[in-house]
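Late entry, written up from scratch paper. The run itself happened at the end of the previous shift, but nothing got recorded in the book at the time, so transcribing now.
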Amino acid sequence: MKTFSKRALLRASAAPAILSASLIATAAFAQDAPQAAEAAEGDTIIVTGSLIKNPNLARSTPVTATTADQIELKQNNTAEEILREIPGIVPSIGSAVNNGNGGASFVNLRGLGSNRNIVLIDGNRLVPAELNGRFDLNNIPLALIDRVDVLTGGASTTYGADAISGVVNFVTKSDFSGLEANIANQLTEEADGHYIRADLTLGANFDDGRGNVVFSVGYQQSDPVYQGDRPFSAFSIDSFTGANGGSGTSTPSRFTNVNPTGADSITTGCGTAGPVACNAVQGNRQVTAAGGAFRSTSAFDAYNFNPFNIFQTPFERFNMYGAGRYEVSDAVEVYTRGIFSKNTVSTIIAPSGAFGISVVVPLSNPYLSAAQRNAFCGLDTNPGVGYTPLYTQAQCDAAATAQPLNADGTVNPNYRTVTTTLSRRATELGPRVSDFTTTFFDYRIGARGGITDSIDWDLSGSYGESENIQTQQGYWLNSRVRQALLATNTSTCLTDTNGCVPLNVFGPDGSITAAQNAFLTANSQVATKTTLSQVKGTISGDVGFAVPFATDSVAFALGAEYRKYGASQESDLLSQSGDLGGAGGAAPNIDGGYDVYEAYGEIILPLVQDKPFFQDLTLEAGIRYSDYSVDGGSGYNTTTWKVAGNWTPVDGIKFRGNYSRAVRAPNIAELFAPVNTTLTNLDSDPCAGSAPQTNANLAAVCIAQGATPAQVASGSIINDPAGQVNSTGGGNLALGPEKSNSWGLGVTLQPSALPGFSLTVDYYNIKITGAITNPTPDDVISACFDNITAASATDPACTSIRRDPGTGGLYGEPSVAAGLPQTLSNLGKLATDGIDVQLNYQKDVGFAKWALTANGNWTNSSTFQATPTSINRECVGLYSVNCASIQPEFSWSVRNTLSFESVDLSLLWRYIDGVKYEDGDAFVGTLNGKDVNFNTIPAEHYFDLTSRFHVSDEVTITMTVQNLLDNQPKVVGNTIGSTSYNSGNVYPSTYDALGRRYTVAAKLRF
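Output as recorded:
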């Protein structure tokens, strides 16, 4: 039974709100989306959850729909902000992430990873932003968004690989006609974090409605919010001691191989292992605050990096969007769409420096004091009883003024050097700044039309490019630090290339001059480029007949698709070499690509309709075959499929269920990235402190990993104060696709006795096998240290962990300390399940119209196992370095809106369930006069209040107060979780760190 025109069919596909079928029911019936009810007959836009566009057929796939009206009431500035606050979505990289932000924003559905979903505009893929295949949400043109549909669960049958956890579809306004201008201005109560957004949209219908064009331009700009400007984040706090923490790369400098007292350092054959007491009087020492000497013990002042870091990344964007369609004839319509965006995201972190690098220092360095020189010379080279200095006092004194060569050119025997590990923060230079400038475009053109009255065709092609240029400023170069220390006078270096200026790292804070910093620094650049070419065609419609007990015809879709991905990372020599101090490792060149040919089909089969207890019973099924070719590697084939059904026994109640098999192909980074050492997080090193002194097997393991016997015996190995350690991993061309099985069951209630009321309850279950994963930091540590025996010192699980011989720690120069091995494999497993609930109710209460919308999520479980021998780790309600971004058990949002004649008043309540620290051994005690417990974060309630004034038909003013009660985030310290999400002593992506803020927006439309 058909009730729509050919033009309506064309338009329905012209604004493709088509989402794939999912195993998961979230929030709203696909066919009962609010937009469908409001659209005029014949122009209805339907979210079907299928490639089949017939609006009369019931669907089994629910979605969560966020409307343009809700976005306007909330006054979200970016697409990432919209998604971050939807119950069931776990915060990913976005505006609240500073250290770890690569200039893009992503979405993480169900906590399964931001690389396991697809972001669409009008049902179409766009070019990804980076080598992990993720689309940058900063490129979404919010002014033209009609709604945002979120569908979670395996959607590979409809959209191909990557939709293993679902899709996010940004649906644009269809057939826009007129002019609309928007401007919004936001400021925090602390008078910082200024955010301005302006958009202008023009659209027109022409040729008696046969065609439509729309064009939109937008501009956004935001200022940073510094952690130093909030009392809870002004000082870095250690999560396990409660003391002021920070970085071991501090100021004044710290050096290894120092013996300030010249005493006998006894570290072997002592204590319980010998007749004399151990006496560790040398090792890593900090220069005194006044300079000119070393502290007598290993105690040091950690560097407080918090004030430089930011809670809101500075952002500037200019974007354009254009689309058009024209009915060439009654049977053919051509259409096109183009998106352009240029945005710059700046990340700001504490100053650079020498982050535990090995250096050679002449004893005749002009900035060395006599006391410091003697401390280097006095290093006891005999670990047992008996003092043997590195150099005698006479040798040391002779070396104080010695040049490498005598006047006649012969080698000077009195010239001597010491090798030491230097840690020095470049406070005199200022912060490290990385500007990420992304230029993005994606262009699509196509044609569609009718084959018969009930069967249509659609053929389109698209091409997109994204280029991200990272410019790094304010970094010392390790090579130039080494060069500048090889000096015997204050004017010239022994190797005088590049205008070398001798460096003073032996004095107090402030001892480094502008001239010295100018030599040590240079800008560096990394360019990341991605491309995506697509061609796809579909034939869809109905077969013109129904099965005996149904009234609607059997519907189908058949199609084919080709996609080609290319991506590269091109780094300058400084970034490739890892020479930047504190850059987190090298940025090697990467180049790769793959393509895929696909064929697919779907069918919707109404079985029984308009019968007693069978108002509707419909089955759905789909299948997709994919053939992958990988540059330089072997290809593979995949088959995905889905089955689903819904049963409406009587009006007002519907049951639905679905089962799906989905896949995710390895992305370009996972395939082509070379082995590289970067940073990860670790809260506790088993070799740190005194533990190895009383456990011979543990001591042997620490030594086998690269620590020296003296470091182990003296207990001088420490946890990195910043909670960061090195990690080594890379891509693997042998990786294959992940596989997932997911299913869902749901019910919707829309009782006729309660008009305006609807309730949906849906259970989802997703399991991923063959997951492309690497072990968590605790997995690597546990594999070695959980059961230490005499054989552990030769166990590959232990010897693959590599330490810096200068400090014994798992941090330091990547070329020296590989840290934790975190290699990729197809051995992982992920699983999650839970329930989504949505309630909607609208009622005229006399003095106003009341609208209630509630979305809730209960996540029962979310587990991750990197390898068969790793822990099957539960992360729901937990936070740690292993459970990076917080995933609460319960979360919900409830909006109540009262609409008067010309005024809307709306209150949004968001709830985040309480969570706790995974290991349970964080700090409990008194901090700043208050009892604190870093092992728990209590439940949080946020309220946003909005007033919207319809001044006239053309003008609307909206005023919003976000975080109405000015809730402050719970402090848990800086070292309890991942650097990306645990920053400023809190979790700013989950909990509001900006505080109360005010937004005023105006909309003008004609």
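The two ends are 38 Å apart (CA to CA).
(Scratch paper discarded after transcription.)
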